């Protein structure tokens, strides 16, 4: 069984462990006297963990029935096996901050009071609409604009909402990283 442990706390023979390496999921197991790793290349979020668990169960079953693929190619995600480059590369366009905020607001609306929605979420939307830029690549410009054009308290509140919005977007797979996390350290002196 996956994640089964022996009395010493070590994984039992034939079990597959899911590990996080640099915020990416990886499977680790021993077979044939050797330790093996299968890098899934997926970010460590709940939905991807479930996929990793399914893949781990598949490997454990193959170990049990002694039909494991020695090349491990069977267990790697299809995207990692693709060697054909499409003629027209498809790159997912990064959503703009106003688009993310609209989706995040709709997600949060049933979870908050109507007065909070009007007081904070609509107000933040209005601040976003006045920004000189809405690209996530311009997070520093956005921070500076908010600090220069709002009271310190209002700027902090808006930046905290933008950070929460982008954290949600990362978890939902809409963006890869939250640019407002990294600017928090850079601008901590200005926010005090």
UniProtKB/TrEMBL annotation:
Alphabetized GO MF terms: DNA binding
Gene3D superfamilies (alphabetical): 1.10.150.130
One Pfam family matching this protein: Arm-DNA-bind_2
KW Amino-acid biosynthesis (keyword) present: no
Keyword Magnesium: no
Domain of life: Bacteria
Domain Min27-like integrase DNA-binding residue range list: 14-79
Cited InterPro entries: DNA_brk_join_enz, Integrase_recombinase_N, Min27-like_integrase_DNA_bind
Keywords, in A-Z order: DNA-binding
Entry protein name: DUF3596 domain-containing protein
